[in-house]
Structures are given as C-alpha cells and as structure tokens.
Automatic annotation (TrEMBL):
Keyword line: GTP-binding, Nucleotide-binding
PANTHER family assigned: NUCLEOLAR GTP-BINDING PROTEIN 1
Domain FeoB-type G: 248-307
Protein name: Nucleolar GTP-binding protein 1 isoform X1
Organism name: Ziziphus jujuba (Chinese jujube)
SUPFAM superfamilies linked: P-loop containing nucleoside triphosphate hydrolases
Domain of life (superkingdom): Eukaryota
Length: 445
C-alpha cells in the first residue's frame, strides 16, 4: 500500500481508534522565560537525511560544504521568507572547538630557514598562538554570521524566538558569543606579540605555554555561551516547518475544549490529549493528505478570557500564528463547560478573536456533543444574564452554522471532514489569487 493511500486511510479512520490512545510522541515543555536550556516546545517530525562535514567549526551539509562561506547581508527578497531556522548552522560544543583548535595550533611549525634557535622558537610560539586564536575565533564568527538578525526574520519566526526562548535571550546569547570571540582575539594577539619579543628560547617557550594556558582557561570559563547557542539552534531547528503555500487549518479555542483530539482525527498530527488545560504547550503541525492535495493542520495552546497583557507565552504563541500565518480557523467551543471555561467566558474569548481575525476563513465546531443531550449542560456554575439573548443562543447551540461533533459518539465527524476540506480548498484559491497578484505587481514594478 502506498504511503499516500495509507495516510488517506488515516483520514478515514474511525476517531475512537485514535482518540483514546495515549501518546508519548509529543511531550509538551514548559516555557521558562530566562531559562538557559532551550528545550523545544514542539515536536519535530522531519527526519534528517543530509550528511554533514565540519567547515570553520560548523557542521555544513556536504552539498554546501565546498561553497565559500561569505558573510553577506540578506537581500530584501529573502527577508520575509519562513524557514530560517532550518538553515541555522550545526554548532559544535565548545569543548570540541577548543580541543580541535589546540591540536591544530600545536602542529604549526616555525617558518623554515631560521637558523637562530631563540628567533626560531619565538617565531614558532607567535605562530602557534596566532593559529590558536584564529581556530577559535573563526568558528565563532561564522556562527554569528549565520544566525540571522531577528529583524530580518519573518514576523512569525520572530515571535517564536521571543516566546520560546524568552524575550531578549537570543540576542543576549549571540552577544556573549561575540564577546568571547573578541576576548579570544585580544588575548591571543597580546600573547603572540609577547612571545614574538622573547629574548631567549626558554622565554619563548614559557610565553607560548602561558599564552596557550590563558586562552584555554578563558575558553573553558566562557565557552558556556557556545553551549547556549547550540541549545538555541537545536530548539529553533526543531520548530515545526510551516509552508506558506500550503493551505493550513489552525485549531483555536479555550483550553481543554478538545482541539488536540480533533487534530488527531483530522490529520496525521499526534498531539498529547489530557483532561487538563494547557496540555498543548506549543505549535504542532499535522498534515491532511487527501487524494491530490496536501494540507497542514496546526494545533495551538488554548486561550483564556483575559487581556493581552495578562496572557502567558503559550496564548501569545496562538495569537502569533493567527497574526502572522494565513491560516483558516477551526474554532472549537465546548458548551458543556467540562473544559473548565464557562460557555459565557468562551463566548467573550470567541467574540474577541473573531473580531480580531475576521479576515481568516472560519469554521465553528461545538465539541463533546455527547455531553450536550439537554443543552446547555454546564459542568461549572456560572452567572449569566438571562436577558442576553445572544449569549443564551450561544449557550444552546454555539455560533450560527457551528457543526456539532462528538469524538466519543462519533457524531458529526464526516460532515466536519467534508467542511474542513471545503474550507482548505477555498484557502488554496486565496493563496493562488495572492500569488497571481504578487506576480502581477512584480511585472508592473
Ligand atoms: N466526552 C467527550 N470528551 C472529549 C471529546 N473530545 C475530547 N474530549 C476530552 O476532552 C479533554 C481535552 O481534550 P484535548 O484534545 O486535550 O483538549 P485541548 O483543547 O487540546 O486542550 P489544551 O491543549 O489543554 O488546550 C480530553 O480528556 C479528551 O478526552 C468528546 O467528543 N467527548
Ligand atoms: Mg491541546
């Protein structure tokens, strides 16, 4: 059976087979602003197949390794593209950089033809210190050139950096790597120059070993900046890849309303499902592969009723997706209130989001309809104004046109899948229209 047809079957699979299977595939991770270990928020489903070789202290894909690494400013055409995280260099641990540099520097001989022993020794010492300085500084400079400036990134990736690494941490770590590079250069130059002025063979040997020791100690002391950079690269590289040309469905709603459960049924995505809020702690991508078309599905953390200033980084991630990616929205409502957020509060959140993102294609779904036999059934007590007819209507059946589904009783799922397909086809038409508009604009300018 081909891969496409087996995935198509997944799309058709009865939901209860998928829903209540516990999954260890996706493990959410808490965002701790300021934390120095940057563990990925999201699962990475792409498998690395490229081979790498070491160039200037970076693991570079073999296909790129022979190309010269030039520090170039990004052209304006490159600025707005998504995918910068997949191009980040593979950073070597500071220990590896240091010991590779020491090994290479110690092999550097004196210039040929110097007969005087003292002269030869100070020449050798200065050259070795200079080599050590370069072997350490060049990889650091290469990293600094290859980690993009935040302002040159797509706004979505910029938000991911701020919300997953903590505000300012990316720049702070790059700043520390640059400071280390500068120290290596200055201490290396100082000791190479001292060694070059030695009056005897013995003095040259002593100054060489003193210089090497100083640089080594400094690199050991401050090399943590490189480790932090390595962790940042790992975290960012594991962020799910979004293709702006592929129609995307984004599931949004209050925490615990059943978004991830629906992602599992609608797509290949396998987010964790639990009966507590904020199970989903990052952006997770799944795919819908129908007969001829590939669609993306993103699961997002839940939104609470509160102002933007009070929102946690997880909620901000959801808003970043909606603000910066051209997704269609599947908004999930749990009118039973079993999720922990009352229908009245969900209504407030819904109205705010709908107003803010009214230009997105939209579909409403009322989840857990097995719990709504005598709707509205509220699991939590809430005060609400009986005279608010709009709210009363919402509490009974959700927004106009909402589809009722239950994963437990398998109600409404075929209708939902059909409507999702329709929505994504419309999204495809939007993307194509946008591309044509862009091409026409480029022809005219
Ligand atoms: N009764 C019933 N429970 C459901 C249904 N769909 C999901 N649930 C349960 O609702 C709970 C929350 O489901 P999730 O899919 O994790 O909800 P979520 O919106 O992704 O939650 P967060 O990631 O925390 O925002 C789980 O215990 C699910 O088993 C349904 O159709 N009926
Ligand atoms: Mg979830």
């Amino acid at each position: 059976m081909s891969r496409a047809s087996s995935l198509f079957q997944l799309w058709q699979t009865p939901p209860n087979r998928l829903l209540f299977k516990s999954s260890n595939f996706y493990k959410g991770i808490y965002v701790v602003p300021g934390a120095k270990i940057y563990r990925p928020l999201c699962s990475c489903k792409s498998i690395q197949t490229t081979s790498y070789q070491v160039v200037n202290g970076s693991y570079v894909p073999t296909t790129q390794a022979k190309q010269e690494i030039k520090p170039t400013e990004k052209s304006s055409a490159e600025l707005e593209n998504i995918g910068a995280f997949q191009k980040l260099p593979m950073v070597m641990p500071s220990f590896d950089i240091l010991y590779s540099a020491l090994r290479k520097a110690k092999r550097v001989p004196a210039t040929k033809g110097i007969a005087n022993i003292a002269k030869r020794e100070r020449n050798r010492g200065a050259k070795q210190l200079d080599a050590l300085m370069k072997e350490l500084a060049v990889p650091l400079r290469t990293y600094l050139e290859k980690f993009p400036k935040k302002r040159s990134l797509h706004p979505y990736e910029r938000s991911l950096i701020e919300l997953t690494l903590g505000d300012g941490n990316y720049e702070e770590v790059l700043g520390r790597v640059d400071a280390l590079r500068k120290k290596v250069v200055s201490v290396g130059k100082e000791h190479a120059s001292l060694c070059a002025k030695s009056l005897s063979k013995r003095e040259a040997e002593e100054r060489l070993s003193e210089g090497m020791k100083k640089i080594e100690e400094m690199f050991n002391r401050e090399g943590k900046a490189v480790e932090d950079l390595l962790n940042i690269a790992k975290t960012l590289r594991s962020m799910p890849v979004v293709d702006l040309e592929t129609p995307t469905l984004c599931l949004v709603g209050a925490p615990n309303v059943g978004k991830s459960s629906l992602v599992r049924v609608l797509s290949t995505g396998k987010p964790e499902i639990c009966n507590y809020p904020f199970t989903t702690r990052g952006i997770l991508m799944g795919h819908i592969l129908s007969s001829y078309q590939n669609f993306q599905v993103t699961d997002t953390p839940g939104l609470l009723k509160r102002s933007d200033e009070d929102r946690n980084n997880l909620e901000k991630l959801t808003l970043a997706v909606l603000s910066h990616l051209p997704t269609a929205i599947l908004y999930v409502h749990d009118l039973s209130g079993e999720c922990g957020t009352s229908p009245s509060d969900q209504f407030v959140i819904y109205k705010e989001i709908k107003e803010r993102f009214c230009d997105h294609l939209w579909l409403d779904v009322v989840s857990k309809s097995d719990l709504l036999k005598e709707s509205p059934v509220t699991f939590i007590t809430e005060d609400f104004d009986d005279n608010d007819l709009e709210l009363a209507k919402y509490r009974k059946s959700g927004p106009d046109g909402a589809i009722r589904v239950s994963l437990k009783s398998e109600i409404g799922l075929n209708e939902l899948k059909g409507r999702v397909h329709e929505l994504l086809r419309l999204q495809m038409a939007r993307i194509q229209a946008q591309d044509t508009k862009e091409e026409n604009r480029q022809v005219l300018t």
